[in-house]
Design brief:
It contains 20 helices and 6 strands. It has helices at residues 3-6, 27-33, 36-39, 43-59, 65-85, 99-111, 113-117, 124-161, 180-202, 224-231, 240-245, 248-274, 302-326, 339-363, 368-373, 382-391, 396-412, 423-429, 447-453, 462-480, and strands at 165-170, 173-179, 207-208, 235-236, 282-283, 365-366. The protein starts with a helix and ends with a helix. The chain binds arginine. The site of arginine (ARG) has 10 residues, from α8.
């Protein structure tokens, strides 16, 4: 919103204790103290909170029937005006500092005295705390859906490419064979956990600050359970002081967003590596790569890089919130106004990253042939061979040693795979251990065989992948109900 639109000569209607013109007279001070650049996005919550407050005042005989009707009518008109005009709404006036005072001033301009009664028993301190809580509740709803959409994208990719056999990596070194779907289900598990963490944290303090006033409450007979029930944001906060001065709910929200962003960043890094020529495990859709201004051949995974990079800002917002609140004395302090700037920025970034991730996942394909071409490298089946020996009664530590010996033998003889060894080779190499191998050892070798053999629950081979896929499809179907 441009500042010119908000310039006017109005003096703040809540600064009557001042002998002079007050803080609106210095344009820098007016801009410095204002939050209108970002808090206009709370207007729907602000209006809903005001209507609930007015209904409560009416029920407590602090407003007449006519007052209430005028307030509700006026606020409904203001809401439709802002819906239609957005940033261009004529009521936005930077000298009024914030969304709360702009809406109230517009109401007074429309309906006169009934509008002047709306703020009875209320302060911007409990008002903004409520608005933010309500905004987080609705933002949570949106971002929850975006987590589900991303999980759906992973599931749909898993249904296409899930059975492709691939190497897994620890320390980014080849580990054991898995299937693509096994790895995709790992991302699903992490996104699901992030989604559940958000739900748990958003719902963990069901407290409604409205009715706390500026800090100490009110001598008027406010019925805080009335507004709490109408707004469905929890029961009245137990302390008027804590209710107005705590921003824990915002911090919890951004912490949970940070965990989603961190998960997305890890995934993005993984796929940036997979999209490299060296790996060539995936083909990103042309929609989600960019060219180079100089190098004609380039197809860079910039969208993935930005998903990886945007987490920096989200962590930054979390640290900003924690730092902003660390020295706040027990009542409201204006520092707290900055909270929304950080919370909105973190939310917007994570929304964009989730949407982008869902689109990328939906359109990416795993490259079966290039993955298969190098699957014989790295002795992926070594652990399986050790487990074969365990089945034959060899203690695991001994079988680990035997297979290590066999790997060394392969390397010495330039054999790339353990399955290149004959039964005799294997037996001879392990003579000191008194171990014999049978023909069935070959069923335990090669990545293709190994991925079928995993039995432990949650495994990332074929059986585990199918089990997990069925589980997540079930979860999605239940969510949709
Ligand atoms: N815009 C302010 C905020 O976001 C509203 C509260 C102002 N309260 C005050 N006592 N000055 O925090």
């Amino acid at each position: 919103m441009s500042n010119e639109k908000k310039q006017s000569v109005t003096v703040k209607p809540w600064e009557h204790a001042k002998a002079s013109e007050g803080s609106a007279a210095d344009p820098l001070a007016a801009r410095f103290v204002a939050s209108l650049d970002y808090d206009t996005r709370l207007y729907k919550q602000d209006i809903a909170g005001s209507i609930a407050h007015a209904e409560m005042l009416h029920a407590q005989n602090l407003l007449t029937d006519d007052d209430l009707a005028a307030i509700k009518q006026g606020l409904a008109e203001i809401e439709s005006e802002i819906d239609a005009k957005g940033d261009a709404w004529s009521g936005w006036n930077i000298e009024l500092e914030d969304v709360h005072m702009c809406v109230e001033a517009a109401l007074v301009a429309k309906i006169g005295d009934p509008g002047r009664k709306l703020h009875t028993g209320r302060s911007r301190n409990d008002q903004v705390a409520l608005d933010l809580k309500m905004w987080i509740a609705s933002a949570y709803h949106e971002i929850d859906k975006k987590h589900t959409a991303l999980i759906e994208s992973f599931v749909s990719l898993a249904e296409k490419d899930g059975e492709i056999v691939m190497p897994s990596y620890t320390h980014l070194q080849r580990a054991q064979p898995i299937v693509v779907g096994g790895e995709l289900m790992a991302w699903v598990a992490a996104i699901d956990r992030a989604q559940q963490r958000l739900a748990a944290l958003v719902h963990s303090y069901p407290e409604n600050p409205l009715g706390s006033g500026a800090i100490a409450g009110s001598s008027l007979p406010l019925d805080r359970t009335h507004t709490a029930a109408a707004l469905n944001v929890g029961s009245p906060s137990t302390s008027s002081i804590d209710g107005t001065a705590s921003r824990d709910a915002g911090i919890d929200f951004v912490y949970a967003l940070s965990m989603t962003a961190m998960t997305l960043s890890r995934w993005a890094e993984q796929w940036i590596i997979y999209a490299s020529t060296e790996f060539s495990f995936i083909k990103l859709d042309d929609l989600y790569t960019t060219g180079s201004s100089m190098m004609p051949q380039k197809q860079n995974p910039d969208m993935l890089e930005l998903v990886r990079g945007k987490v920096a800002g989200v962590y930054g917002q979390l640290v900003a919130l924690l730092t902003m609140t660390k020295g706040i004395t027990v009542g409201y302090n204006r520092d707290l106004q900055e909270d929304k700037r950080f919370i909105f920025a973190a939310y917007d970034a994570v929304c964009d990253c989730l949407d982008m991730a869902a689109n990328i996942v939906k359109t990416t394909r795993f490259k079966d042939e290039t993955i298969a071409a190098k699957l014989n490298e790295g002795f992926l089946d070594a652990t399986s061979l050790a487990e074969y020996l365990v089945n034959r009664g060899v203690p695991f530590r001994t079988s680990h040693q035997i297979v290590g010996t066999l790997v060394r033998k392969c390397q010495a003889e330039n054999l790339t795979e353990l399955s290149n060894l004959s039964i005799e080779d294997m037996t001879a190499a392990c003579s000191e251990f008194n171990v014999t191998f049978d023909q069935d050892v070959y069923d335990w070798l090669t990545p293709q065989n190994v991925v079928k053999r995993y039995q432990s629950s949650g495994n990332s081979g074929l059986p585990g992948f199918h089990e997990q896929l069925a589980h997540w499809k079930n979860v999605l179907a239940n969510d949709a109900e």
